[in-house]
Amino acid sequence: MGVLNRLYNMQLKRQGYTIKGRVQGVGFRPFVYCTATKLGLTGKVKNTIYGVWIEVQGDDSKLNIFKEMITNEKPSIAQFTSITMQSLGFQDKETEFLIEESSDGIQYTSLISPDIATCEYCVKELNTTTDHRYQYPFISCTLCGPRYTIIHKAPYDRHHTSMSSFPFCFTCEKEYNNSLDRRFHAQSNACPTCGPQLWLTDHDNRYITYNSEAILLAIEYIYKGKIIAMKGIGGFHLICDATNADVVNTLRYRKNRPDKPLAVMVPNINIARQIAYISEVEIQKMQSPECPIVILKAIPHSLPKNIAPDVSTIGLMLPYTPLHHILCNTLTKVAELERIIPALVMTSANVSGGTIIYNNDDALIRLNTITDFFLFHNRNIIVPVDDSVVCLREDNIGQSPNWHFIRRARGYAPLPITVKTLKDNTPCIIALGAEHKSTFCFTRGQDIFLSQHIGDLSEPETEWSFCQTVKHISQLFGFSPEVVVCDLHPDYFTTRYAAEFGLPILQLQHHIAHGYSVLAEHGHKEPALVLTLDGTGYGMDGTIWGGELFYLYPEAVKGKSYEQGERLARLSLLPLPGGEKAIHEPWRLLSGFLALLKIHELEGVDSLVRQLWKNSPERWTIHSAIREMVSKDKVKLTSSCGRLFDTVSTLFGLCDYITYEGQAAIRLEHQQDMSCNESLTISIVEKDSIYELDTTVFLKELIELLQQKISVSILARRFHIGLVEGLADLALIGSENTGVKTVGLSGGVLNNQTISSLLPKALRYRGLTPLMHKNVPSGDGGISFGQAYWASMVLA
């Protein structure tokens, strides 16, 4: 008999698999266990510092089936970046397959999963009255729930998360150890007996009630026109009834957010269809595990205009946590009785574009003058993460949907973006990004780890959060950077912060970083042209840049940190009187333009501008001062495309004062008469050894057309078309001079749907190949990505 056993064992093999990627916190180990057990294989699986390690033993045919199943039938949210197999020595006495305890290590290379929207199975249990997790606001399983926001350190195991404060009850532990259960090794598993709890207080932290009663009372308060600050998965939201214009006004007043669009949460797609026009592709995105805010075309009059007063779109999202589902379901019942649309304003609880507030004590201090009530819970948020915001781009490039990230955060961070053209042995780099819409990046081989959106680095709290997140991600993934990259601007916080690392520093100009960002997304290392269109950035010639055409050559910068790219063209320079003040008061930009061209002396212009400024006579006094400054060359100049939009917007009387970034341009975009196909006169000149799209010709023509009583909506459309045609002509000149036909497009102006739709078409019409952002924001949230790519090419 012993001889037969030995002969049988000779036919058996043992294999080891190292699998890297998004394989922790996504139910992958339980899946491997179940797969091996069903096939009668023995061995083990565990988390390691590199990813997941599998040892599996059995006959050839079953081992082949095992490999095929773990590759092709893995959980939908699991992602492999690599899978390597090796032969191992056969273990004679092994009789079962086990999930082993995870290995700790000083360098952790596996990926941490982002937070995942509540899965359909948990939603069903949440609404089943006989289930012991019925209406429990922290239900989760291996397929969904918090991940990145609750992890202290890697690997992803319960004792490394904020769930370590909640020991399992008997039932949850039984589920955790049952290989046939959906919660088998679910690290965030909990129930009403052993898990987190929530409670309701007033704005002075006076306790009212807890758990299910707290939710019911919160909905009652919302329906009565109150504002609730609710702690979610990655931070606090401010919530109110989206159908109540009065409470929306109250929220805007208290938060000092008079005009910026507010995001809205609805219970389901059927309700969303009552508020916005939605395509099937957009529905899929809203229902995805990432569950971002999706910008959609609004149905007029479906909600109060003060939800998004400047635009014809609306940002909608579906519930992505159990607490959201309970709130929305309860609200739906109330709405049916009152015959109103069940919709909640769900806006991030932050101050002046800063980091979302995520700590209970901090929320009490900073939100008590905004909110009427707090809905707290006691599961600690380790990493604050805001909602992601996306929109479907209408550029028709490629066959798959073209999504445009306005903000990349929850559901996506901290997953890396792989750039195949980078080398595996490139030194680890940290890139610190821009001052506004700040993000940072670490690199590891071909992977660039782009952080979540953190906020504008204009407040000490946001600076602190930025530094803490850098430290956390560095520790989480075991990064040991050898080089730090930052912007050229000497006054940026990130420029000062770079010096604190004690590492070699590389600096890259802001708009060139935009250019490398879009090239990196496409793994493009050959020479390319890039149009970068944004607000303002520190130029290399003493002016403020923001409308540039660059010639970039990623592969040629190796070992040459001084090589960044060549500036071939720009928009014409316009005055920026008062610097930062003109950004917030764009009427000053118009004043500077009038002073520059002295067209205040031209017939009819004086009366036109007096009409615009009729309610602000003091502007004429300031205008006189600006005129003198311009005549004496004592004013900064800018080629900024964003500032050009602001100038035109204020010329049309659309926006004199800015209450949020991009407001004047947004109003101009949404003023267009889309039936118009006319352009403006385009003039390209060569000036100071650089080509220039003469935007003063645009402005003069617009003034003349205004005097002819042409409608503002027609002129807004003609401006957009004229700018697109002029930029495309500029790119064509660049192509003819360099022989390069690839044109990248980057910068915050690409958030403008008209520009991002028409400009690629105009480039293709001229025989050029446009490259657009896909997974990285085109605005300043993508700057760090471009910095990281450029530095990787320099150090390759």
From TrEMBL:
<dbReference type="InterPro" id="IPR004421">
    <property type="entry name" value="Carbamoyltransferase_HypF"/>
</dbReference>
<dbReference type="InterPro" id="IPR011125">
    <property type="entry name" value="Znf_HypF"/>
</dbReference>
<feature type="active site">
    <location>
        <position position="29"/>
    </location>
</feature>
<dbReference type="InterPro" id="IPR051060">
    <property type="entry name" value="Carbamoyltrans_HypF-like"/>
</dbReference>
<keyword id="KW-0479">Metal-binding</keyword>
<feature type="active site">
    <location>
        <position position="47"/>
    </location>
</feature>
<dbReference type="GO" id="GO:0008270">
    <property type="term" value="F:zinc ion binding"/>
</dbReference>
<keyword id="KW-0863">Zinc-finger</keyword>
<dbReference type="Pfam" id="PF00708">
    <property type="entry name" value="Acylphosphatase"/>
</dbReference>
<dbReference type="Pfam" id="PF07503">
    <property type="entry name" value="zf-HYPF"/>
</dbReference>
<feature type="domain" description="YrdC-like">
    <location>
        <begin position="212"/>
        <end position="411"/>
    </location>
</feature>
<dbReference type="Pfam" id="PF22521">
    <property type="entry name" value="HypF_C_2"/>
</dbReference>
<protein>
    <recommendedName>
        <fullName>Carbamoyltransferase</fullName>
        <ecNumber>6.2.-.-</ecNumber>
    </recommendedName>
</protein>
<dbReference type="Pfam" id="PF01300">
    <property type="entry name" value="Sua5_yciO_yrdC"/>
</dbReference>
<dbReference type="GO" id="GO:0016743">
    <property type="term" value="F:carboxyl- or carbamoyltransferase activity"/>
</dbReference>
<comment type="similarity">
    <text>Belongs to the carbamoyltransferase HypF family.</text>
</comment>
<dbReference type="InterPro" id="IPR041440">
    <property type="entry name" value="HypF_C"/>
</dbReference>
<dbReference type="InterPro" id="IPR055128">
    <property type="entry name" value="HypF_C_2"/>
</dbReference>
<dbReference type="InterPro" id="IPR017968">
    <property type="entry name" value="Acylphosphatase_CS"/>
</dbReference>
<dbReference type="InterPro" id="IPR017945">
    <property type="entry name" value="DHBP_synth_RibB-like_a/b_dom"/>
</dbReference>
<dbReference type="GO" id="GO:0051604">
    <property type="term" value="P:protein maturation"/>
</dbReference>
<dbReference type="GO" id="GO:0016874">
    <property type="term" value="F:ligase activity"/>
</dbReference>
<dbReference type="InterPro" id="IPR036046">
    <property type="entry name" value="Acylphosphatase-like_dom_sf"/>
</dbReference>
<keyword id="KW-0862">Zinc</keyword>
<dbReference type="GO" id="GO:0003725">
    <property type="term" value="F:double-stranded RNA binding"/>
</dbReference>
<dbReference type="InterPro" id="IPR001792">
    <property type="entry name" value="Acylphosphatase-like_dom"/>
</dbReference>
<dbReference type="GO" id="GO:0003998">
    <property type="term" value="F:acylphosphatase activity"/>
</dbReference>
<keyword id="KW-0378">Hydrolase</keyword>
<comment type="pathway">
    <text>Protein modification; [NiFe] hydrogenase maturation.</text>
</comment>
<feature type="domain" description="Acylphosphatase-like">
    <location>
        <begin position="14"/>
        <end position="101"/>
    </location>
</feature>
<dbReference type="InterPro" id="IPR006070">
    <property type="entry name" value="Sua5-like_dom"/>
</dbReference>
<keyword id="KW-0436">Ligase</keyword>
<dbReference type="Pfam" id="PF17788">
    <property type="entry name" value="HypF_C"/>
</dbReference>
